[in-house]
Design a protein that fits this description.
40% of the residues lie in helices and 22% in strands. The protein is of the alpha+beta class. The chain has 2 domains: 120 residues, no CATH class; 154 residues, Rossmann fold, CATH 3.40.50. Strands 1, 2, 3, 4 and 5 form a 5-stranded antiparallel sheet that branches. β6 and β7 form a beta hairpin.
Length: 289
């Protein structure tokens, strides 16, 4: 009868616990930095609530230090749960960390429960954060993210391939233009630019990526005597399974990435996506070697 019309109860249930970080000790200001999920089979997973770009926006040059503290906290919880299996017995590795109240939840997957938890406990997560900046400020933030991404890749590559140094940040006048265009990497083997597909500054980051692709197109069509063998763009792109991203944001990022791939494919430019600097560096070494 009527009971048959009710939706099925979610297939997965678990407990979730927020972990708070107090940047200034005894200030009372606490940020939710981790969500710990434990299920009935004693399995657990830990989800970060604050994406790198959020930390960079708030802490600037000190964001790496904050990220390191969060990583240390995550490692401590992993080691504890591997042995003890109960979050309530966890002891923080340093002052300023606090475990919140554990709550029950049900949904179709552990990732969906994590999104529930983030939505209910972290206003700064990119799931619920309302970015209220004007277009100029967003452009500045996107430019900074793109530059940091590029510089981090360069530093990583030079640790093992120092002979590539002269090929980074090469400036070149294309055609009859007196203005020089800078390329992230340029050699007789490859021309590579870098970009960040940001869920926070979506429109401005997309505009920068399009500009990087256009620069590669102009080089490809130039009358230069020596042109690279291949052309690529390496993008920092979030993991679609990141619990701090809502389904709407993930769908929008996927659509945008498909648009970028279509534009690049038409221009015969390869697109590589990476979540970490290390994987981006490997992609660059592969196309440049």
């Amino acid at each position: 009868m009527y009971i048959d019309s009710f939706p099925d109860f979610p297939s997965y249930s678990a407990s979730w616990t927020p972990v708070y970080f107090e940047p200034i000790l005894l200030s009372g200001e606490r940020l939710t930095v981790l969500i710990v999920i434990e299920d009935e089979n004693n399995e657990f997973r830990i989800f970060k609530t604050l994406r790198d770009e959020v930390l960079e926006s708030f802490y600037g040059s000190k964001s790496k230090n904050v990220k390191s503290l969060i990583d240390l906290c995550e490692t401590s919880i992993k080691e504890h749960l591997t042995v003890r299996r109960q979050m309530k017995d966890w002891q923080p590795p340093f002052d300023g960390l606090y475990s919140g109240l554990t709550k029950r939840a049900a949904d179709d997957s552990i990732t969906m429960i994590a999104r529930q938890a983030i939505q209910r406990s972290s206003s700064l997560s990119s799931l619920s954060m309302a970015v209220d900046r004007d277009d100029i400020e967003q452009d500045k933030q996107s430019q900074k993210q793109s530059i940091r991404w590029q510089d981090s890749i360069i530093k990583n590559v030079l640790n093992t391939h120092s002979h590539f140094e002269k090929s980074f940040k090469v400036k070149l006048a294309i055609g009859n233009s007196k203005l020089k265009t800078q390329f992230g990497f340029l050699s007789d083997k490859a021309a590579v630019n870098f970009g960040v597909l940001s869920p926070l500054h979506h429109s401005s980051s997309l505009n920068i990526i399009k500009a990087r692709i256009l620069d590669l197109e102009h080089l490809m069509g130039s009358s230069s005597l020596i042109l690279p063998e291949n052309y690529s763009i390496i993008l920092k792109s979030p993991n679609p399974n990141d619990a701090s991203l809502s389904k709407i944001v993930v769908d929008r990022l996927n659509d945008t990435l498909q648009t970028i791939q279509d534009i690049s494919s038409a221009a015969k430019i390869d697109v590589y996506t990476a979540e970490t600097v290390e994987s981006a560096a490997k992609a660059l070494i592969k196309v440049a070697a």
